[in-house]
Amino acid sequence: MSRIGVFVCWCGENIARTVDIAKVVESVAEIPGVRCAMNYKYMCADPGQAMIREKIASEKLDGVVVASCSPHMHMKTFRRAAAAAGLNPYRLEMANIREHCSWVHADKEEATRKASDIIRLAVAKVGYDHALNPIKVPVTRRAMVIGGGVAGIQAALDVAEAGYEVVLVEREPSIGGKMAGLSETFPTLDCSQCILTPRMVEAGQHPRIKLYTYSEVESVEGFIGNFEVTVRKKARYVDIDKCTGCGECSKVCPLKKNLSEFDYGMGMRPAIYMPFPQAVPARPVIDKTQCAKIIRNGCGLCEKKCAPGAINFKDEDQLVKEKVGAIVVATGYKLYSIGKKQESEKITGYGEYGYGKYKDVIDSLQFERIVSASGPTNGEIKRPSDGKTPEKVVFIACVGSRDNAKGLNYCSKICCMYTAKHTMLYKHKVHHGEASVFYMDIRSGGKNYDEFVRRAIEKDGAKYYRGRVSKITEENGKLIVRGADTLAGVPVTIEADMVVLAAAMRPADGIEELAQKLNVGYDENGFLMESHPKLRPVETNTAGVFVCGACQAPKDIPEAVAQASAAASKVMVTFAANELTREPEIAVINEQTCAACYACVRTCPYHAIEKVELRARNGTLIKYAARVNQGLCMGCGTCVSVCPSKSADIEGFTEEEIYSMVEALA
Amino acid sequence: MSETNGFEPKIVAYVCNWCTYLGADLAGTSRLEYPSNVRIIRLPCTGRIDANLVVKAFEIGADAVLVSGCHPGDCHYNAGNYHARRRWILFRELMETIGFDMRRLHFSWISAAEGKKFQQVITEITEKTIALGPYNPYGAEPRVEPLSPMPQAAAGACDPAAELELRTAAKRVLESGQANVVIGYGARGPVFITRPDDVDRLVWNANCHQNLATYLKRKEIRALGKAAIVMKGCDERALIILERESQIARPDLHVIGMACNGMGQPKCAACDTRETRFADEKISSAQPPADMPDRYVAVDQILAMEPADRMAFFTAEFDRCLKCYACRQVCPMCYCERCIADKNRPQAIDTSPHRQGNFAWHIARAMHLAGRCVGCDECTRACPAGIDLRLLNLTLARTAEQQFAYRAGMDPALDPLIGTFSLQDKEEFIR
Amino acid sequence: MSEQISRDNLRTLVAGWLAAGKKVVGPVQVKPGMALFAPLRSADALLLDRWVRPSNSIKEVVFPRHEALYGYRIGKNSVELFDAAVFEEQIVIGAHPCDAASLPILDKLFNWDFQDEIYNQRRAGVTVISVACTESDDECFCTSVGLSPSAERGSDAMLLPRADGGFDVRLLSDKARGLFAEAKLAAGSDGQAAYAGPASKFDPAQVGAFAKDHFEDPFWAEHALACVGCGACAYTCPVCHCFDIVDEGNGREGVRARNWDACQYGMFTLHASGHNPRNNQAARQRQRIYHKFYMYPEKFGEILCTGCGNCARNCPEGLGVLPVVTEVSHG
Within an 8 Å CB–CB cutoff, is residue C21 touching chain A? Predict the structure, then answer.
């Protein structure tokens, strides 16, 4: 028989006004197992808590019910009090007789009866409460950041600065990401590379940052505090330790006419190349699809020229394993591929804009390279087809974004701003030129953002047309842009020399595969799912995996950086102790009765249940079973519902506890 | 309440901790008055609220039950409510067929901000329940009135050459060591041939009713070593589920597929799996019946009755239940090491073969087979009390097919029905 | 004996019992091809026209599948107990000799050490009016276990079907005579030779003898392979009598009840420790045969089987006592 203490709170008049406390106390005192039934004006106040502590000690209580307000209000308070008196805090339950009773019922008799019932349920439950202890999970205090753009660099540096090792994995040969290719950034028009490259160098040289460039995440095992990530280091054919970055190899490479990825095809590069001059690491890479030595054992000039002997044509992909305790995903974005075949049938593209057909119809990142001082034109605005300076440039916003008919219904958020920036950059370089913008709405929320757009229109004279472009054709070397000015209610036709399409932001290629490796959810557009849009914006449903930057949703640089620092701080919280402490009210599985159907494994929203083999001491297989990873389980109990034999259960809400409550209503 | 003629309904509300419980808290902090009949049971998530709990609430005398949680997209645990919603769809169909008073079973999404909605929902449920009066689902007068006979299929002719071919195949797999035991049909029932010389004990005739897949779960059979198994097209669907649920390793199993022209069971009339599809070797051939009735005609017949009559019908059916568990034991899908019915801490399902215990058992059994039952009807055939168990299974199979385009054991690539969800799952019954 | 009753008059008699509020149990049709012993709702429901073998037995009138033994209420510092069982007069009509014979066998079990009051009170209220068999099926074997299609053991009355559709009536107890006091009986002799029943199929003594020293024989394992471990055989057997005691309630009040149990269940002998002395189906199948043909005879001097064949008819997998014991008996 249990020794349960019931403590009924008056909450001043809040409960006592409609609930007859004396009657309630009298009725609950009669419940078998109830050792004492007390009441007090304010249980949460010090004397009330003292009464609980005193009774736990004097009556040797093994369970306590506090009948007062919502457990969401004071459960922690009372559990702390119980713990202070030596009672396991999880053997304290609350009966909510205020929010669920005295405040919502006027009739004293009814409220009194209901209050007694509510307490009866809690008494029934507490009789079955297990004494629980917080769960400790060991932590490898070392983080991985996937993606070396501005968000990834920020996160990596923050974590490294806090004193923890970071493994930074970047798919491209250099870190820097999209930002490294930008010209100037809104709303300050400061040079993108001037801000970013020092951070890149810092990351590259940081003693606690281990850099894997030209590498991808192959697989992820483990759970929070204890991940083991396999990284594929792609064959670079250049030994980056031997290489000095002198660049002689690129100079001698005879195959120089390859489209530059960094310039989005606006410029050329050799088959052995450094992606861009400020690359980190400042080491070249050989494109194995282009190199004559690799393809047909020809050439080999770079190898001969390389004084340190860093060229290695026999290089192969390598798999390396890294143990980390937390992972930050910062894989960034790509642009909507406007004219090309789309990966989903739902997305139809914009064939009518002639992208890919007309050389002078380019996307926004291509324009960034054209306008960039480090770009293929050294910052002079020359159009791709003939290198002439375009006199009239049309900018089209929302290409792909907010267009259900074409596929993506979200707003890419940054296009309004960079389009305004583009008109300014153009006008600053081609003073007599004409910049026209077709837009749907101007979304310029942000510090100094709207002022920036106004400047583009009012000071730099960009012409803004609120309307869509229906078609672009080419006639006599001009791009005929037919659109509408819906504010004026007239059709607009512009004979442009160049058209820049503000293509939608999409998550980078391979995001879904990566998400699956990490057990992180993604939305219908492929953006990674945060755990809670407001309260847990950088966490994911997989504990220990955090997100930042444009892989989670379209965002601009300040936002991506802020989110990166937020993710870094979450990593630091994870690393704050050698062990993680987690609430013990989570799932447990009776492995003896588990039939290993793995319905729970399939259902668990947190991928917290794993398949295990139970073996005898001599190694023979006894059976298969499911086991809860205490580091991952959040305690929702969905596994219990799908478990046919109810071998799964949730501590704090066990089957026995729940049924005892229901039966107490009989 | 005074205008109730003294009837104070008992209303049990299972609510999630994060939305509806907090919604009720908000109703409190906002001092929104509502009738005092509801008793709230707090659970972490609607994902935790299963059919057994709802049934238990009715057992303890609830006049109405409310299940409530976070709106879609708001689940504290992301998807618990979606999982719950899918189960409720199936559970409601089952309760509907059995004839429970669906006006007593309520579902809602009430967020932490919807104190007002909580007040409204509770008020309305209470008023409605008072109008309906007290409820005892287990008080129906049993109605012993057989349904109009099920479409009965004549047993088809068995290919005599097939029996010979089967024995040859069995001999071959045993001699070659491909299998240590051939699970097949003998003169009286299932046989387990371990010696090549014994293959003549195998028969193939119109009495090969059993779904032999059920033996794959039995440790006594597993102990015999690698198995070859004789499967009809209908039985084979069980293998697909068993493999999906990690109960068998299909590559370790040699399947001898027998084309079947029907075994004279009700299921045979609408059989579209007369041949196995994934067998390792196939013997003989068979054609689906030319004039195939609707698979679910029996459910339609039941649903044509009034709910109270359905309840009376199932009361008569379940009253005959002895709890011999033949239904469970023959079922290839009932492979739990310890059945929920045998779990006594707590005893969610009364072990006694009384009415309430029998209802609880058959509801739980049907729910556990939702999206898993392959329609072999072995439970119905095995029942010594003649309970028409297939009606429950067919109800859920019909829902699965009509609402989720899912037929258990047909497509090995399909994810299971339970344990998955779609954002598009219907929820017109949830307020 | 020299009285007879027409079928119509028998129905009228039954209708009279029902009208008087008596509980009458007899074979009724529940599904096409399935009859069960069940309380009659009307005399018309009683199957009298042809030989049927109900899928269950009559043991439920004395040993219900579920019965409350007593009720309890837990107070603050006490437990109150209440009698739960209510006893009533029950008339069984249409039992076969293999059904009727089960009651004397069960009597021994429920009285050999502990006098089971609840059983005995039920038993005292039961009158069994049997109908002699005129046919048998492949699973019947009463003649192998010392009974016959017209054996009178356990019956208070025996009705022997006549060619004219009526019955010769043998009243064997005062209870039966009382019930038939109002009956329209006609004088007449036993009109025809009783049906002799199926030829004897095995010798129970030989089964017992084999069992005695073949406990470890691989025979049991081979014959148990098809068993799926349900309780259909035990629950439809007229003499299987194992039960389980359960408490059903809500923590404050409830009943302690007796429910049928079956030795073929995996959990039947499962110890709280996790150890299970009969941890495979072969051991359980063997137990069933041993209990019926070896252990029960050792203790009570007779076998625990009336030859009804229900185990085989109800086994979903074609097992049953008969095929096993026949094989044992024939070596």
Answer: no
User: C250–A664: do the CB atoms touch at under 8 Å?
Assistant: yes
Domain B2-139 of CATH type 3.40.50: yes
Residue A525 in domain = no
Of the candidates A136, A67, A74, the one whose C-alpha atom is nearest the C-alpha of residue A102 is A67
B6-29: burial string, b at 16+ Cβ within 10 Å, e else: eebbbbbbbbbbbbbbbbbbbbbb
C-alpha distance across the termini of chain B, in Å = 25
CA distance B188 to chain C (A): 5
pLDDT one-digit tens code per residue, A326-377: 999 999 999 987 766 666 666 677 888 988 889 999 999 999 999 999 899 9
| DSSP code for C134 | S
Among A536, A314, A555, A530, residue whose Cα is nearest residue A415: A555
Give the nearest chain A residue to C75 (CA atoms): A32
Write the CB contacts of A485 (distance below 8 Å, at least 6 apart in sequence). A465, A466, A467, A491, A492
Residues A281 and A405 in one domain: no
| Three-state secondary-structure class, residue C259 | strand
- pTM for the whole structure: 0.85
Q: Test C250 with A30 for CB contact under 8 angstroms.
A: no
The first and second tokens of residue B287, run together, are 């054609």
Q: Mark which of A574, A597, A626 sits at the end of a domain.
A: A574
The answer to whether residue A193 sits within a structural domain is yes
Q: Give the per-residue pLDDT at B366.
A: 98
The verdict on A245 and A393 lying in the same domain is no
pLDDT, tens digit (0-9, with 9 covering 90-100), for B370-426? 999 999 999 999 999 999 999 999 999 999 999 999 999 999 999 999 999 999 999
Interchain contact C259–B (C-beta under 8 A): yes
Compute the mean pLDDT over every residue in chain B, rounded to the nearest whole number. Answer: 93
Q: Using a CB-CB distance cutoff of 8 angstroms, which residues of chain B are in contact with residue C318?
A: 186, 188-190
Q: How far is A35 from chain C (nearest CA, A)?
A: 10
Residue B3 has pLDDT above 90, yes or no: no
C75 contacts chain A (CB < 8 A)? yes
∠ CA(A323), CA(A324), CA(A328), 5° rounding? 140
Residues A354 and A472 in one domain: yes
Q: Assess whether A311 and A362 both reside in one domain.
A: no
Looking at chain C, the whole-number percentage of residues with pLDDT higher than 70 is 98
A522 vs A507: CA distance, rounded Å: 10
Residue in chain C nearest B208 by alpha carbon: C317
- Closest-CA residue of chain A to B39: A118
Q: How many Cβ pairs within 8 Å bridge chains A and C?
A: 18
Contact A31 C75 (CB under 8 A): no
B29 to A103: CB separation less than 8 angstroms, yes or no: yes
| pLDDT tens digits, A99-142 | 999 999 999 999 999 999 999 999 999 999 999 999 999 999 99
Q: Tell me which residue range forms the domain holding A187.
A: 142-332+559-574
Chain C residues within an 8 Å CB radius of A661: none
Q: Where do the domains of chain B lie?
A: 2-139, 160-283, 305-404
Q: How far apart are CA B349 and CA A643, in angstroms?
A: 15
| B386/C31 Cβ within 8 A | yes
- pLDDT score, position B150: 56
Q: Are residues A44 and A109 in the same domain?
A: yes
pLDDT-based confidence at A541, cuts 50/70/90? confident
| B2 band by pLDDT with thresholds 50, 70 and 90 | very low
Residue A543 forms part of a structural domain: no
Overall number of domains in chain C: 1
Domain count across chain A:
4
Q: Which of A333-337, B275-279, B283-287 has the highest mean pLDDT?
A: B275-279
Could you tell me if C156 and C176 are in contact, meaning their C-beta atoms sit under 8 angstroms apart?
yes
Q: How far apart are CA A200 and CA A157, in angstroms?
A: 10
- Label residue C251 by pLDDT band (50, 70, 90): confident
What's the pLDDT score for residue C70?
A: 94
- Find, in chain B, the residue whose alpha carbon is nearest to that of A118: B39
Residues in C touching A124 (Cβ below 8 Å): 251
